[in-house]
Specification:
Blueprint lengths: L6 H14 L6 E12 L6 E6 L4 E6 L1 H4 L11 E11 L4 E11 L2 H17 L17 E6 L4 H13 L4 E6 L7 H13 L5 E6 L13 H8 L5 E5 L7 H5 L2 E2 L3 H8 L3 H40 L1 H44 L1 H6 L4 E4 L2 E2 L11 E6 L2 E6 L10
Parallel strand pairs: 3-5, 6-7, 6-8, 8-9, 9-10
Antiparallel strand pairs: 1-2, 1-4, 2-3, 4-5, 11-12, 11-13, 13-14
Helix pairs in contact: 4-8, 5-6
Length: 402
């Protein structure tokens, strides 16, 4: 029977065996990262490396972790290099990682993140650089492959939504070794085309297929376009660095065409709606103005000089009637007075006296009332009731005072 060991002795022995095994030093293990965490105080990274059948714990101390040029993420395929050791307290063996290298999609992700961080620091993705997409474009420039479905989707959507807009196509290779230069050249030509909007598009594909749209050169070409640009690369779940640099990101090429154009039916509906609003507004204004006009007209009728003139004429007519009445009454009274005066005159008239046998004696046109006014030889005129006679005075005689 072998000797009895304590747990500590057993773990210590296994630890010694693993440390002394040269095959377990500098070992490289390929797998997928899971349960990745970084201790907030020590900054050590703890994670698990697994494949479809097994898993092994790993730790990377802060001195090595701080030198990584990317941030490991759960699900990332990596190559972990380090030594296999036992954590004696718990009797668990683990990889003490000294290096972590992304593999496959993980490597692409790392490359993209490095470019992304560089461009972010240089301000390429700043919101302040974004330009507004015109609401009603006259011309759209499309940079994409001539053979891809993305182009047909865009043309179909533009024709359906807003057929008044023209579309200029600038062909580009969207994958392969020549894609980067081809896309940059097409973007440059599209930017000089005088279009209102540029759509940079391609359909879905693998991460490797989409890599040209993550290249620094293409992203800078997108950012440097003076024309507002919509990026529509891949499917809805795909995101490229061009999406960050573009003025607008669309999940699909079809969505980009919808973002770039107004819907003609919506425009018609909007015009109808605005017309109805305008009609109602004009009707309200007209009704308001009519009320004002009626109010002013009522005031004018009250203050109108025509009304005052009519009232004045009516008053003048009334006064004229009263004046005529007064005049008639006055004339009637005067007529009566005249008749009375005539009667009195007739009573007192010297002619009446003459008719009774009396006469009027005049000398040189002056009536004589005394003998003393006459001398012998004077020529007198004697007025009788039916005529006059001339007489010479032979003698005068004064009546004795009685």
């Amino acid at each position: 029977m072998s000797s009895v060991l304590t747990v500590s002795q057993l773990n210590n022995y296994i630890s010694f065996k693993l440390r002394s095994d040269l095959k377990l030093k500098g070992i490289a293990v390929k797998g997928e990262i899971s349960n990745f965490t970084v201790h907030y105080k020590s900054k050590h990274a703890y994670f698990t490396v697994k494949d479809e059948n097994s898993a092994v714990k790993a730790i990377m101390f802060s001195s090595n972790f701080s030198r990584l040029k990317f941030m490991p993420e759960n699900g990332m395929s990596v190559l972990v290099i380090g030594n296999v050791e036992v954590y004696e307290r718990d009797g668990i063996y683990q990889i003490i990682a000294t290096e972590i290298t992304p593999l496959g999609a993980g490597l692409l992700h790392t490359q993209i993140e490095l470019v992304k961080e560089k461009l972010r620091k240089s301000g390429v993705f700043d919101i302040s650089r974004k330009k507004a997409i015109p609401l009603v474009p006259k011309k759209i420039a499309v940079v994409t492959s001539l053979t891809g479905a993305a182009l047909q989707d865009i043309l179909h959507i533009v024709q359906r939504r807003y057929p008044l807009c023209t579309v200029d196509i600038f062909p580009a290779q969207v994958q392969g070794s020549c894609a980067v230069d081809s896309i940059c050249q097409a973007l440059s030509e599209a930017d000089r085309d005088g279009a209102d909007t540029i759509i940079l598009a391609r359909g879905g594909g693998s991460p490797e297929d989409l890599m040209p749209f993550n290249s620094e050169k293409v992203v800078l070409a997108v950012a440097n376009c003076n024309t507002p640009l919509i990026s529509a690369v891949g499917h809805e779940t795909d995101t490229s660095l061009c999406d960050y640099a573009a003025d607008k990101r669309a999940p699909t090429p079809s969505a980009a065409a919808e973002l770039a154009t107004p819907d003609k039916q919506e425009m018609v509906n909007s015009v109808i709606l605005l017309k109805n609003k305008l009609d109602r507004a004009v009707k309200r204004i007209i009704e308001s103005r009519l009320e004002q006009i009626n109010s002013v007209d009522s005031k004018l009728n009250i203050l109108s000089p025509d009304k005052k003139l009519a009232e004045s004429i009516k008053r003048a007519d009334e006064l004229r009637v009263r004046l005529d009445t007064l005049m008639d009454r006055k004339l009637e009274i005067l007529s009566l007075n005249l008749d009375s005066a005539v009667s009195q005159l007739q009573i007192l008239s010297p002619l009446n006296v003459l008719e009774r046998g009396y006469s009027i004696t005049q000398k040189n046109g002056r009536t004589i009332s005394s003998v003393n006014e006459i001398s012998s030889g004077d020529r007198l005129t004697i007025r009788l009731s039916d005529g006059c006679l001339q007489a010479d005075v032979i003698d005068t005689q004064i009546n004795p005072k009685g």
